Amino acid sequence: MLYPLSYGGDRDRFYRRRPQRRLPGRLRRRARRHLAPASRVSCPHRRQPALTVFAVADPGVEFELKFLVPRAALPALRAALGERGAQLERRRLVARYFDTDDRRLARAGMSLRLRREGRVWVQALKAGGEAALARFEHEAARPDDTLDATVHAGTPAGERLAALLADGVPLVQRYGTDIRRVVRTLRTRGATVELAFDEGHIEAQDRRWPVCELEFELLSGSHVALFALAGRWRARFGLAIDARSKAARGDALADGSRSLAPRRAMPLALARRARVDEAGRAALDECIAQVLANAIGLAALVGVEAAPAPARTAAYPPDAEGGERVHQLRVGLRRLRTALRLFRGWVPPVPDEIGEGARELRRALGPARESDVLAHLIEPALQRAGAPGVPGLEPRSAPGFRGTPQPRGTSRRAPQDSSTPQDSGDPVALVAGDPAQRWLVALLAWRDGLDEAGASPPDGQPPAATSLAALARRRLARWLRSIDADARRFAQLDDAARHALRRRVKRLRYAGEFVAPLFEGRKMRRLLARLEVAQRALGELNDLTLAAQHYRDRPAPDARDWFAAGWIAARREAVVAQAADALARLAKRDPFRKR
Questions:
Q1: What 3-state class would DSSP assign to 92?
Q2: Residue 349 burial (CB < 10 Å; 0-12/13-18/19+)?
Q3: What pLDDT, on the 0 to 100 scale, is given for residue 191?
Q4: In terms of Cα–Cα distance, which of 29, 2, 1, 26 is closest to 14?
Q5: Residues of the chain where predicted confidence (pLDDT) is lower than 70
Q6: What is the pLDDT of residue 241?
Q7: What is the pTM of this model?
Q8: CA separation for the pair 550, 370 (Å, rounded)
Q9: How many CB atoms lie under 10 A from the CB of residue 124?
């Protein structure tokens, strides 16, 4: 009989006559899709006009959305999977993950897995970005539980794997998983989707990490239909988006960590002659990866990975890592808005709910960030200065977050976890809540739509490959002149004007980091360094202003409050001088001026 040995590589190797046991149902279904008649869908994996075309989906790429399941939603979700007499397939998946001792595969964004599915062993190689919804996947059946990295030869990821292992470094098992999976196939208008509900754990040495997630994988049809279906289930059960793979969590667990470290900004690797649309999407992907990673780190505290309810404490004062995660989430949101502003008019217009949603979520997280500044910056400084009394860190109320408009026919009510404080000042409850999660899903859907539509600019003609530097030069030079105008009269500006200037400095710095490879390296590095110094001084000035308001507005101020007011006033004078000096140096480093 025809035995589908592997897929995702050379079609000539796809079938081999071998009368042995059959592969699991999931592999058989993918094999059928590989040679099934082309369906009327838009292929997102190839650059093409935004037309409805007849195309075959790439069998080597999986497109999926994954969500964390809150504890309170587990009974209802289990019941919903089997509602209306749905046929469910239940499996136990025991897998081993391999890497080198120096984590070469993990650092390259790859994972190599050997998993037992029923009575068959299947080896899989995966590759994809942090926030990527479409990941390369190549699987091959194995006769036993032995690993063979050469079975992936002939695929792009297989060639990368061979290059990583070219020096003969051995592969070792780093961690493993034991998962109970319930699978249901749903046919909705415009798509066929496989729902996979996973419960189990990841294990590394003597450490375990619980897993409870719901995955939506597109078998055929439209990405839009997949997002719509996932959105309905998310709203119904209060799910939280989670772009992490089991490999990412397992790698962290093998290194001794069970939490997702705060994700900081990473530089873009743009080519000097990068196209505007390519640069725009690269900047968006970097910002979205930072936003998602830190949002997931907060939202995971309402899932099975979190401590039980008695161990949950209020978010104030937050621990250092939690406060840093909130800070990096706000930085990611600011960088996202900067990217949208930088590429405005050069790429397709951005829906209002995306930009406004980023602004509102960042504003709603402001009180949490202010409390973290008080707890970990201002109060320690006051203690070192000899402040009397006991710190008072009452949290301010957050302004709330409305998010994107709710789709018609979906409920705003979602199961609430008793371990999640519903106080509006808790950043965990805020990020895991329905409005923020709805906005995150909308953000991913919009970003995915750019690929499906071809991402052509408004006039239908993308700028020439050499025009990006010229466009960015004019825009960033104008932003720098705006900063310089206010920097010359910095001493006369009030607090509101200084805060607005700080936002413009951050915008120029983040935008400059996006396009830095397009300009002369030394001059651009010097400008970015001086922008960072100015941003740090203006940031401290803003923190001192907020702290002064905090101690001034406290009911029944005591000796500590008066001490804090005096210390802040003295510190403000020194920081104002530092900020004025840093701003004065900016105009002397202008890499945008034509020589």
A1: strand
A2: exposed
A3: 96
A4: 2
A5: 1-59, 129-132, 258-259, 306-320, 392-425, 452-467, 589, 593-595
A6: 96
A7: 0.84
A8: 10
A9: 17
Please provide residue 272's backbone torsions phi and psi, each rounded to the nearest 5 degrees: -60, -30
Report how far residue 523's alpha carbon sits from residue 592's, in angstroms, rounded to the nearest whole number. Answer: 9
Tokens at 533, concatenated:
């110094």
What pLDDT was estimated at residue 26? 56
* Separation between Cα atoms, residue 99 and residue 81, nearest integer Å: 35
pLDDT value for 322: 81
Amino acid 17 reads R
Q: What angle do CA 42, 44, 48 make, to 5 degrees?
A: 75
pLDDT of residue 466: 43
Tell me how far apart the alpha carbons of residues 395 and 269 are, in angstroms, rounded to a whole number. Answer: 40
**Residues sharing a CB contact under 8 Å with residue 445, sequence separation 6 or more, in sequence order:** 223, 224, 227
8 Å CB contact between 467 and 580: no
Structure tokens at 391: 């710190």
Collapsed DSSP state (helix, strand, coil) of residue 384: helix
Count the helix, strand and coil residues of the chain and give each as a percent rounded to the nearest 5.
50, 20, 35
- Say which residue the tokens 């993918």 belong to: 30
Measure the CA–CA gap between 77 and 91, rounded to whole angstroms.
Answer: 18
Helix and strand numbers (H, E) in the chain are 17, 14
Residue carrying structure tokens 């040679």 = 35
Structure token digits, residue 70: 């809150």
- φ, ψ (nearest 5 deg) of residue 418: -65, -15
Taking CA atoms, 400 is separated from 197, 368, 416, 475, in Å, by 32, 12, 17, 33
SS3 565: helix
* Amino acid letter for position 140: A
Nearest residue to 98 (alpha-carbon basis) of 253, 250, 260: 250
C-alpha separations of 27 from 118, 127, 257 in Å: 12, 19, 33
Number of neighbours of residue 511 by Cβ within 10 angstroms: 21
DSSP H/E element including 117: strand 110-117
Query: What is the C-alpha separation between 223 and 486, in angstroms, rounded?
Result: 47
Residue 586's pLDDT is: 84
CA distance 425 to 427: 6
Which backbone phi and psi does 390 adopt, to 5 degrees? -110, 135
Query: From CA 117, how far away is CA 23, in angstroms rounded?
Result: 8
Q: Provide the greatest CA pair distance for the chain.
A: 87
**Minimal CA–CA distance to 283: which of 335, 350, 326, 244?**
335
CA 545 to chain centre: 31
